[in-house]
TrEMBL record:
Transmembrane regions listed in the UniProt entry: none
Domain N-acetyltransferase: 1-142
Keywords, comma-separated and alphabetical: Acyltransferase, Transferase
Principal EC category: transferase
Presence of keyword Transferase: yes
Protein name: N-acetyltransferase
UniProt xrefs under InterPro entries: Acyl_CoA_acyltransferase, GNAT_dom
Pfam families given in the database record: Acetyltransf_1
Gene3D superfamilies listed in its UniProt record: 3.40.630.30
Molecular function GO labels: acyltransferase activity
Amino acid sequence: MRIRQVVTDAFGQPDEADLVDALRADALAWIPELSMVATDRDGLVVGFALLTRCRVGAEPALALAPCAVVGDLQNTGVGTAVTVAALDAARSRVTAGADENLVVVLGHPEFYPRFGFRRASEVGISASFEVPDDALMFLALDPNRPIPTGVIEYPPAFGV
């Protein structure tokens, strides 16, 4: 319940929280160990980041969405912490043999590059809908593996 409150607070409306609920119910998209929370000293959830399965072209990939932090703690490092935790967990899965080496995100072009994200258009990754070129980004978890190209196929919960 607290994750829903954090996501709703961060985005100012419940659409992204509804997305999290729908993704959690999708056994093909949901990866429990890639749902990360940050808590305050009292153990209350104050930040959240989620990676779920998607496809790029015909290849398995991950979508980072949403990343949310309660309003009064935004710009304090909480979003960075949950994003790093999610990406580290995804890298561990790749090392253990998971197929999803690529992460895509549609997000703030000044936030995500600090984690190594680059414009998806640089490598031929696109969305099936109009998005600003600098907001659609990708990250290869293991840069020595091939990077899939093509259109991102999001889970049905995304509605695109």
